[in-house]
Amino acid sequence: LDACLYYNTSQLDKKIKLTLLYETLCPDCQEFILNTLQRYVWKYGQDFVDFNFIPYGNARRTQLNNTWTIQCQHGP
């Protein structure tokens, strides 16, 4: 029990790392970010969660000559 209590108190100052990979034009991703993350986690969790948003998802990269093109599922 003492070991558990020590662990809990030693972790209080460390933030939880939360990485979200999302599609910027995806309606489901937008709904999740606006109605779940913003409403609950972002509003109440900024003190203990370290957010990392990566705007990438269901996309395809192609290279033609020296030019790269990215095609996303929900937009250009």
UniProtKB/TrEMBL annotation:
Keywords: Glycoprotein, Secreted, Signal
Residue ranges crossing the lipid bilayer per the database entry: none
Keyword Transcription regulation: no
InterPro entries: Interferon-induced_GILT
Main localization (coarse): secreted
Record keyword Secreted present: yes
Location within or outside the cell: Secreted
GO cellular component: extracellular region
GO terms for MF: oxidoreductase activity, acting on a sulfur group of donors, disulfide as acceptor
Homology family: Belongs to the GILT family.
Name listed for the protein in its UniProt record: GILT-like protein F37H8.5
Biological source species: Trichinella nativa
